[in-house]
Design brief:
- By secondary structure, this protein is α+β, with helices and mostly antiparallel strands.
- The strands form two sheets. It has a four-stranded antiparallel sheet with strand order 2-1-3-4, sandwiched between helices. Strands 5-6-7 form a three-stranded antiparallel sheet, with no helix packed on it.
């Protein structure tokens, strides 16, 4: 990822919001959008959502006809290519992100209790060296 963020409510095991990104404004925009749609996946760049897939059923499934859901998913992949600068994507970044939060499979996982090292069976301390809140250091 070169410039942007992805946020999703598809996050095994507890389906909390999980987001990754290169800047706070994009992370915030993606999280805000999936909150507004009561769940889903959003891709943002420079603080603006550039792709989304609302998942109205428990934040996990679309309530749209499959053709519309498929078009939403295609739009997500196009947006992901924009924020990564890649012409092709060799893996599914959205499924990868959703399983990053599943602590029972190796190796390092994000949980609601912190970053967990499956192999060591312990949590990893995480510290922010330069805290940023709404663009203010």
């Amino acid at each position: 990822m070169k410039n942007g963020a992805v946020a999703t409510t598809v996050a095994h095991d507890d389906h909390n919001i999980v987001a990754v990104g290169t800047d706070d404004a994009s992370i915030f925009a993606a999280i805000t959008r999936i909150t507004e749609t009561n769940g889903g996946i959003a891709v943002a760049q420079d603080g603006t959502v550039i792709g989304e897939m609302p998942l109205a059923i428990a934040g996990l499934m679309s309530d749209k006809p499959y053709q519309e859901a498929s078009a939403d998913l295609d739009g997500l992949f196009k947006a992901y290519k924009v924020i990564t600068g890649q012409k092709t994507v060799a893996f599914d970044p959205f499924i990868t992100l959703s399983f990053l939060t599943l602590p029972v499979i190796p190796t390092i996982k994000m949980t609601d209790q912190g970053l967990y090292d499956f192999e060591k069976g312990d949590f990893i301390d995480v510290a922010c060296q330069t805290p940023v809140l709404n663009g203010v250091k």
